[in-house]
Amino acid sequence: xxxxxxxxxxxxxxAARAAYDALAGRRRGVLALTAFFGPAxxxxxxxxxxxxxxxxxxxxxxxxxxxxxxxxxxxxxAMLFQALSAKLGIVTGKNLAELCRAHFPAPVVWxxxxxxxxxAMATDLAEFxxxxxxLSLLLGVPLLVGMVxxxxxTYALLxxxxxxxxPLELVIxxxxxxxxxxxxAEMFIVPVDWGSAAWHSIAPNLADSxxxxxxxxxxxxxVMPHAIYLHSALTQARTPVDNERDRRALLRYSNIEVVAALxxxxxxxxxxxxxxxxxxxxxxxxxxxxxxxxxxxxPLFGTAAAAVFLMSLIASGISSxxxxxxxGQVVMQGFVGFRVPxxxxxxxxxxxxxxxxxxxxxxxxxxxxxxxxxxxxxxxxMIALLVFAGRADIMGVxxxxxxARAGSIAAAVVVLALNGVLLLQAFGVDIPGLPPA
Length: 437
Hints:
- This protein has one domain: Amino acid/polyamine transporter I.
- Helices cover 77% and strands 0% of the residues.
- It has 20 helices and no strands.
- Residues 1-8 have low confidence and may be disordered.
């Protein structure tokens, strides 16, 4: 897929030969898997974007390891829906937004498009602000200058798309690896209570209404609407096949990639919460801003801890900003049938971030609430995906079975329930058994 031509171009040259050799059995093991790694890796950056930094830092600092279970739950839900999205593209040759336009009434399509565009703006706010915060801290310049620098770097990376599909995949994959390595290093610097982290990963608990707000923010930061739309576009024509056997093999490789890529993303998110808990919860529970976390790490654990944190934030902000632009193109083209130049799309989605900074709004608070907006927008693509995955006239023999359908519905119910409770809380309705923050 290229940003200018839309989702529809597959692999070419050596990458395509490797993929077809794997499907034919001439390429096996790890070498076979590498031919199909790309779509889920790109989608996974949405699960390690600056919105995750903001929510995870607040969760770890204020509640220690208490919200680790939310990260685990959100990641499992993300795997399920990213696998379904990839399957939709592989089986139908169309992406989720295109199928919505083809099968839903016009008013529904327009409503979904508007909601998706709002979600795209919230996504870009988080991603662009995160990169800007990182660069402004690194360079010691005002946040507005960091925003300009982020925009320049983003445009430069988007230019790689002109060279074809694979180069951008490899660059995004390299940035994902950089984020993971940064947090691996951080785990050796900051003391972590591994026993408590493990227990709270499987023991659900919400201490108060503030924990609920953060829990919904974590779900919003982890299960991303634009990633669900984008993944189906990345797979729809990447490796075209014309028979059921090859399609089943392609789905198998896709599922392996989803589990691998999102497992890594989940571990990074858990590491974010764990390091924030280990660094701040005991003595600095009110650390709630990315900038404060950065400045607090240095005196506590040395400049190395702060530098590693900063590098991971910059890699996250820049790479997720690129992926957000790709997703925005897919959403617009799929729902309304036309595309705009990438530079226009990037410029429009930068505006909310500049407005937030110009108005003096707290950047980290804006990041957290942008994730809540994403969580509220998430049901639209989730429900649409469930509908299409369960329709035999669309999926044929690959229609979701009873077990997969039940699991998907259960996951959607969890997200909808969290959103419903948050809305009640926002309108001042007390949640029984949940003390105020």
